[in-house]
Amino acid sequence: MSIRLIRYTAGEGPAWGVIRPGGIVPLPGDYPTADDVLGEGVKRARSLVADPDAITVDPATVTVLHPVPDARIYCQGANYRSHMIESGMDPDRAFNMLFTKSTASLTGPDGDIVTPPHVRLLDYEVELGIVIGKAITGPVTVTDADLADYVGAFVLANDISARDVQLAQGQWYKGKSYRTFCPVGPYLCVPDREEVSRWRELRLTLSVNGHQRQDALAADMVFQPAATLTELSRLEDFQVGDLLLTGTPGGVALRPPGAVVQRIVGLLPEARKWELFVRGQARRAAYLKPGDRITASIRTADGVLDLGTQHNTVR
Q1: Phi, psi at residue 299, to the nearest 5°?
Q2: Which of 19, 67, 149, 155 is deepest in the core (most CB within 10 A)?
Q3: Is the pLDDT of residue 266 over 70?
Q4: What phi and psi values does residue 175 have, to the nearest 5 degrees?
Q5: Integer distance in angstroms from the first to the last C-alpha of the chain?
Q6: What are phi and psi of 161, to 5 degrees?
Q7: pLDDT tens-digit readout, 87-96
Q8: What is the DSSP letter of 41?
Q9: 35 and 133 in contact (C-beta within 8 Å)?
């Protein structure tokens, strides 16, 4: 059965623990890399979960940190059919849109999201994260049958995006990489090998100020994890602990104008076109504002795979 590894601090340096009913059981020893945590750490965690005499820590007494300290972040854009359709794309004629986020964008599951002063169109994207469990140093062909070899853990993430930078400036990396723009956690959900194939059953939900915005199963993905890892292996080496964000469902704040309007606006000078885009999008109340409270979660209906819940406030 899956276990949940949490990274936290109780006033000293970061520590790792395993969650079980009653609290957090600290993991003995040091885990300087994700490879250590997902190797020896998982072995110790499985034994501690079953140990009735293990000492537990009250979660209320610790600060939860994001659980991917060494991760480089790779992302898929517009990877859910529902998101493609609302963005005016044809899911059956799409390509796998790949990009990266800065590691400096990482923040904890309860951390504040800080809006840069110049950003007007701040958006949310709940995403299923896959923590790489096996190094990739050359082209590989990953299949559903051996996907479990490459999945070290599942994790909840939110790909916060400044749309007026990402789209109007053509700056995907910048628009998605400001500090605090990648809440991750609250913990790593480490599945048993036979549970990895249940990723399609994971339900992603996100609400803002108590109003649900996103709700979909991961099965809605167009480019699935095995195919995406295969494609990325032609481009990049991966270390254990690197993070792949697999896209977001429909329901984001962004709503591109219709095809007719886009054709008309396309005749305008580039600067004028994007000025009108930002002005039109700014009328949408769905974009995030200071004081907004975002709640996101991912889990299967039976709770066997539970990636936890995030609570982030926009500043």
Answers
A1: -165, 160
A2: 67
A3: no
A4: -65, -15
A5: 38
A6: -140, 135
A7: 888 888 889 9
A8: I
A9: no
